[in-house]
Amino acid sequence: QVQLVESGGGLVQAGGSLRLSCAASGSIFSSYAMGWFRQAPGNEREFVAAISWSGGLIYYADSVKGRFTISRDNTKNTVYLQMNSLKPEDTAVYYCTVRRGNIGGNYYATYEWTYWGQGTQVTVSS
Question: Which residues have a Cβ under 8 Å from the Cβ of 54 and sit 6 or more positions away?
Fold first, then answer.
């Protein structure tokens, strides 16, 4: 089993920034992709960003491209999501996720990912 613990969420005004972290522990794979999804009330969980083991392959949802940056530190088994120029529509619970090996072809789909964290709330006020 792999455990994922997110941190860094909170309340911020529109235009502000937050940095989310997600630390993985347990039966960590030798190489694994990591990602972030989010879910707003009444909505389905949606893809935000994903990063390969080496960091050489990165994907973003169109809605966050240019504002969010995903990165990782493999020495700490941790992935980060730097969120700038936040908008009220970014308000959601943000979930960290992991899958063994490379990023899947359908990386934007929840079924491509294996383990999930409990989520951290991000609220952006207008």
Answer: none
Tell whether the model's pLDDT for residue 54 goes beyond 90. Answer: yes
Q: What is the mean pLDDT of residues 4-20?
A: 97
Q: Looking at the DSSP assignment, which residues form a beta bridge with residue 30? A: none
Provide the sign of the torsion angle of the four alpha carbons 62, 65, 68, 74, taken in this order.
positive
Label residue 22 by pLDDT band (50, 70, 90): very high
Residue 69, classed as helix, strand or coil, is strand
Is 46 within 8 Å of 56 (Cβ atoms)?
no
What one-character-per-residue DSSP string does 10-27 give? EEEETT--EEEEEEEEES
